[in-house]
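Quick one - inputs below.
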Amino acid sequence: MNREGSTYTIVYASVMVIIVAVALAFTHQVLKDKQIKNENIDKMQQILRSLRLDIPANSAEAKYNEVIKNAYLIKADGSVEEGTEGVGANDPAFGTDIAKDASKGLPVFEAEIDGVKKFVIPMAGKGLWGLIWGYLAIDADGNSIYGADFSHASETPGLGAEIVTPHFRNQFEGKHLFNAGGFSSVAVVKPGRSVSDRDYVDGISGGTITSRGVDDMLLDSVGKYKDFLLKLHSAQ
Amino acid sequence: MALSNKTKEVLLGPLNKNNPVIVQVLGICSALAVTSKLEPAVVMAISVTVVVAFANVIISLLRKTIPNRIRIIVQLVVAAALVTLVSEVLKAFAYDVNKQLSVFVGLIVTNCILMGRLEAFALGNGPWPSFLDGIGNGLGYGWILVAVGFFRELLGSGSLFGHKVIPQCVYDAGYKDNGLMMLAPMAILIVACIIWIHRARNKDLQEESN
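Output:
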């Protein structure tokens, strides 16, 4: 058969593409459940890390079910959306990705650490190269931060990517989201600088844009929960 | 199994006198991107070795059927399919590693070494030599990556595989990590230093000056 003929070339290309497509689709189908499970466990680990619990992947699910007592979506005014309670991986609170779609409501996770109630809220923002996200655990007063966790899609290793380190996230412990003038969030400043009007933490040297992204994310994402946090505050 | 001289040359040549990075100067782009820490450098080296070896075998098996006019496209499809497979498998069985590599797994497709080996070797040789050629080139690329990653992480963060190796007393005495090591230009300089040493030791690689 003529290897250089147009018919041969076209048939060859078509058959090749179909075989590759079938092979990839098949692999994806076979591995999908395992991949989703991995993603869920990863998310549970992040939520637990914000609660100062660094749990290995194999025991994360059990710990998550033990610590997280309730989860639900809230409306912008801070009231709980009816019928969204549930801590499972398929329930609305866990399934909602605020970076993509927050129209149904904002997720809140209620945790109990040593008998004390904490609230975990998700955050999403932009770094230098791609998305950054994280979780913030807040005390029952709706003001002081219990812990935080940050993740990123593609920040520079050694620079912006340092936001995932315990060294960075531990700085948030005990900071306050409200100052005398109302909701102020926590500022991320250049190491060595300071701001007087609100609580602040040191950013990453050499990761200025990522640090600024974290700063914006804290202001925007946490700002959406302002009314919810105020309600907690006034209930104290 | 004893290797004949030719197979030995195919497997070991790329580690030294025919190295893809420091002699052929291919794959520099990813050598800059993934070497600021040692761990991604090691995982990238392994991934590239696996992908080049198997892409070489597949292209070598198909070499008598591939229409000449679309051979680059065929090579690309095979490479892209393999890379996607690797990434899917990593996501299912080594989620943490996949997260660490993030975009770099996808970047293997654009690695010049991969296309270079498919075009230059696999199209003209049988599956077994092609497999060895893939392993050899992957490792030849890999050891440069690991060497560069070693120096960048050691001098840039004072750690290796994420563990601090430079003792605190050295920092107390006034030593500081060199932040410049984290940036891509330093990777170029380190690669250049490796090339310099390599050429100095291999006179036959030196180009004649006019």
